[in-house]
Design a protein that fits this description.
The chain has a domain of about 60 residues: Winged helix-like DNA-binding domain superfamily/Winged helix DNA-binding domain (Arc Repressor Mutant, subunit A). The protein contains 5 helices and no strands.
Length: about 100
């Protein structure tokens, strides 16, 4: 039984599910009305808003009356909950998914 599908059909031969999932997130914005619950704390939301405003970690620490180590802890927690690896990824995800 022959198929019309070519080998790899435009995909790299070593693509895996995780790579495809990341590509899907990058190329397709969130579906309006479909908001995933990340269960962010109030402090995490405050910090995420400050990241969106372009504040540095030191500025966030001063504004929230916490030390930089605590800011780092909250940001690491944000990354885990949002399934991102950088400040820019967190900001993009927050905007795309209307988290802020």
């Amino acid at each position: 039984m022959a198929t019309n599908k070519k080998p790899y059909d435009g995909e790299a031969p070593d693509c895996n599910d995780e790579a495809r999932e990341r590509q899907e997130v990058i190329t397709h914005p969130a579906i309006p009305g479909k908001i995933e619950s990340y269960e962010l704390s109030k402090r995490e939301m405050d910090i995420l808003n400050r990241l969106l405003m372009g504040d540095s970690y030191k500025m966030i620490a001063n504004a929230c009356s916490i030390n930089i180590g605590t800011v780092n802890s909250h940001i690491n927690s944000l990354y885990k909950k949002l399934h991102v690896h950088s400040k820019s990824e967190a900001v993009i995800k927050a905007i795309r998914e209307n988290l802020v």
